[in-house]
Amino acid sequence: MANMSLKKVQMPEQDPNVRNKNFKEVALGYEENMAVEEAERCIQCKNQPCVSGCPVHVQIPDFIKQIANRNFEGAYQKIKETNNLPAICGRVCPQESQCESVCTRGKKGEPVAIGRLERFAADWHMRNKEDKVEALKKTGRKVAVIGSGPAGLSCAGDLAKMGYDTTIFEAFHTPGGVLMYGIPEFRLPKEIVQKEIDSLKKLGVKIETNMVIGKILTIDDLFDMGYEAVFIGTGAGLPKFMGIPGENLNGVYSANEFLTRINLMKAYDFPNHPTPVKVGKKVAVVGGGNVAMDAARSAKRMGADEVYIVYRRSEEEMPARLEEIHHAKEEGIIFKLLTNPVRVIGDENGNVKGIECVNMVLGEPDESGRRRPVTEKGSEHVIDVDTVIIAIGQSPNPLITSTTEGLNKQKWGGIIVNEDTLETSRKGVFAGGDAVTGAATVILAMGAGKKAAASIHKFLSEK
Ligand SMILES: Cc1cc2nc3c(=O)[nH]c(=O)nc-3n(C[C@H](O)[C@H](O)[C@H](O)COP(=O)(O)OP(=O)(O)OC[C@H]3O[C@@H](n4cnc5c(N)ncnc54)[C@H](O)[C@@H]3O)c2cc1C
Ligand code: SF4
Questions:
Q1: What is the structure's pLDDT at 30?
Q2: Rounded CA gap, 342 and 319, in Å?
Q3: Which atom of ligand 2 is nearest to the CA of 43?
Q4: What per-residue confidence (pLDDT) applies to 419?
Q5: Which regions in the chain score pLDDT beneath 50?
Q6: Whole-angstrom distance, CA of residue 433 vs CA of residue 420
Q7: Which numbered atom of ligand 1 lies nearest the CA of 295?
Q8: From the CA of 92, how far away is ligand 1's center (Å)?
Q9: Residue to mutate (ligand 2; options 6, 79, 101, 105; most atoms within 8 A of CB)
Q10: How far apart are CA 61 and CA 87, in angstroms?
Q11: Residue 84: what pLDDT?
C-alpha cells in the first residue's frame, strides 16, 4: 500500500557540530526499513515524469518498486542498466533540479527521495554482493579515453562492455577526476569512487596514470600506437581568478588547489600524508556554487574559526545544491550575500590580512536570466581574513586543444562537437563532459560519456 506521508523519510546524518570537525561522511544513508518505507511513497505514475527528468533515464519507478518489494539487488541491477556509477550519483546528483523536481508526489508535499533510494540500492549491493565479471566478446580494436572523471569512466565502461580494448590515460596519479580531487570525502567517500573504478577494471578497462596527454603523448601519438578512436574527457580544471589587486598574496588559493591538496593529497591527515595545506583562522571563500560550499566546509573542518561565503548575488541565485547550502549553514558557515570583493589586502610580509568588498543590489536579469548584481556606491568595507579561496568557476585546460591540430574550440576553451554524435572536428576524436560544456554536473558528464561510447561504436563498426 502506498505511503501517503507528505514528508520524505529522514536520512540519518552526523550532528553538525561533530561533523564540522571531521571528514567522515555527513549523510549516513537509509537502513533497509527506512528505504522500504520511502519506496512505498512512490505511486508508480503511468507517465513516469521522473524518468524524463533524469539525464540518463534511469527507470526510476521500476527500481523503486524493487526496493518496496525488498528486492534490493534487483533494484541495483535496474539502475545499473542505464547508470554506471549509482553510488556516486545517489550522493552528488542535483536531484532537486532533475528527477525529484518533476516527481508527482512533489506537487503536494515532498517528492519521493529518489537520490537517497538510489544511494541505498548501490550501497546495499556494495555491502552484500560481488560484481560478476561478464565474459565479453572482444573486438580486438583499441580505443583511448583521455581523463578518468565521470565522462571518461562511463565512456570506458560502455566501450569495454562492447568488447573494445579500452585504455584510460589520466594526468593525475589517481583516477576519478573531480570525484577524487574535488568533491570532499565528507560528501563522497573516496572508497566508494575507488570501488566503482575497480568494477570498471574488472570489465577489462586499463588505466594509465601520470599520463598528461598533450605533454607526454599527443593525440596523434595515440593513433600511431594503434588506437582507432579517442575520447577526450579532460574536464574543466583550469581555475578562474577575479583579476582584482592582491590575488597574488600569500594565503590566496584557487578552490581547485585547496581542495586537491585536501582531498587527493589528504592534507587533512598531515603529516601521515606528506602534503600540507595552510588554513588560517578567518577564511573568505568567494563564489556560490558547489565548489565554494565544498571549500568553505573543508576550511571549517581544517580548523578555521570563521568561514565566510562571499557571494555577489542573493541566496536564490546561488548555483550550489540546496542540500549543500543547508549543510554549510548547519555547520556554521557565515553567508555574506550581495557582497563582492574588489581587493585583497596584504600585510608588510605579503600575507593576506583582509578582503575589501562592496555591497551589491540586484538589477535587471542578464543573459543567464539571473538578476545582474550592481555595485552600491560608497559601500566599501573590509572583512578581516587571513585566507582567501577563489571559487568562481573553472574552464577547460588548453593543453590538448593547443597540441592537437585541427581540433576546433570555442573562444572560452570548450571543445566544439557535433551535438548528436559528440565527434570533434578531428575524425575519430570524440569529446564530452566539462571539456565541452564547461563546468557542469557529474550526471551530464556521464551521459556524454555514454553517448560518445555509442558513437565510437558506430564509427568503428562502419570503418
Ligand atoms: C569541488 C567540486 C564539487 C562539485 N560538486 C558537484 C556535485 O555535488 N554534483 C554534481 O553533479 N557535480 C558537481 N561538480 C561538477 C562535476 O564534478 C563535474 O561536472 C564532473 O566531474 C565533470 O566530469 P568530467 O569527466 O567531464 O571531468 P573531470 O571530473 O574534471 O575529470 C577530468 C579528468 O581528466 C584529467 N585530465 C585533464 N587534462 C588531462 C590531460 N591532458 N591528459 C590526461 N588527463 C587529463 C583530469 O586530471 C581529471 O582526472 C563539482 C565540481 C567540483 C570541482
Ligand atoms: S514521479 Fe515520483 S511518484 Fe511518480 S513514478 Fe516517479 S518517483 Fe514515483
A1: 98
A2: 21
A3: 3
A4: 96
A5: none
A6: 14
A7: 1
A8: 13
A9: 105
A10: 18
A11: 82
